[in-house]
Amino acid sequence: MLAGPITPTRPGSSQAAEIRRVQDGLRAWIFDLALPFWSTVGMDRSRSGQMRGACEQLTLAGAPAQPGFTRMRVQARQLYVFSEAAARGFEGAGTIAARIHRFMTREGAASDGGWARLLDPDGHVLDPTNDLYDLAFVLFALARYARLTGEPEPLRQAGHTLVFLRQRMARSSGGFSNVDPPQPGWRQQNPHMHLLEAALELFDVSRDERWAVLARQLVTLFRTRLIERGSDTLGEYFHESWLRAVGIDGDKVEPGHHAEWVWLLDRHQTLLGDRTLRLARRLDGICTRHAIGPETGLMRDEIGREGNLRRGSARLWVQTEMLRANCVMHRVAAANSDPVDARARLAAIVRTTDNLLTRYLVGAESKVLPPGTWIDQLDAFAQPAIDKIPTSSFYHIMAGWVELDQLRPSVDAV
């Protein structure tokens, strides 16, 4: 996903120096501002003051908001964030990860392997529905926590949830139900994408073939149902038989999900050896041609299957996924001895990271929003359009930085 022309941000600097600059800038923001803030202010406390899990969201003043619920997916995402931070040396992050894991397990884990969708302000189950999106993030977080601790319990929990998915939510037409108990509505691509992310991480940490089987089934679903031949676009909503939805819902294309699949297909090929990069290139091409704002370098939230712009706004998470996808495509270009594309990808990476640091991520000098927080949404004019600070964005930021931080060997090779 190219984010504009090759124009180094600092005149006269090399691309390698520019990459190191944005790597260091994003690292400093995460470890000096974001993690100290979210490990304290961003943690939820009981009425007696005892720290429990993560806050669902904050007000624009930086105080814990009280929406009346917390989603299991938010707890899982923060378990991932603090597990990653602990592995990279942030003091106290391991304790916070353990606390979140304990809170999730105590309040949200069901005996049959499912997980509640919503908890109330006291930490009790508000909605016991098993939501595939939430389950996918629980599995993903358990994988990262297992890698951090080396303990068997997170992997045991993940295996128990896989049995639940197979027994209760698997569909004869492929994939899984959106929720259990079932509810009417379109089948959705997005939770299956995140389930693939979880399966790959669980296979990587455990080498348990059950996760490889699941990953391959989900990639087969992608090949045969989710990506549309002809338009090379990824559907969001589908009939029970995986025919793409009709009307506005069927026309919807989210470039951010294209970018996520680019990263996942590369990860799948790396871990399991299946040839999936050609599919990644097809997804990448749609976004390169249709989804990037030429003046800002921001990836837009929504286009149509013909490439027409449907929503010119730009969520934070979409930019972090573009960052990850360009890191993948840079490595591919470097490996294929394509210096023109490799350098173009580096320029895109620099521009996207600079956009994150200057448009979305709140720095130490801010007098409006608390340093270490973020602006989750820009409108079509690249102006903030927010009424809260959602905790859930940190997962995307951390994942984007982890990918960016691994880029040094490829930079040196170009």
UniProtKB/TrEMBL annotation:
Instruction: Name its GO BP terms in alphabetical order.
Output: carbohydrate metabolic process
Q: Name one Pfam family in it.
A: GlcNAc_2-epim
The record's keywords, sorted A to Z, are:
Isomerase
Q: Which Gene3D superfamilies match?
A: 1.50.10.10
Q: Name one GO molecular function term.
A: isomerase activity
Listed InterPro entries: 6-hairpin_glycosidase_sf, 6hp_glycosidase-like_sf, AGE/CE
Q: Tell me yes or no: is Nucleus among this UniProt entry's keywords.
A: no
Name the family the entry cites.
Belongs to the N-acylglucosamine 2-epimerase family.
The name of this protein is: Mannose-6-phosphate isomerase
* Species for this entry: Lichenicola cladoniae
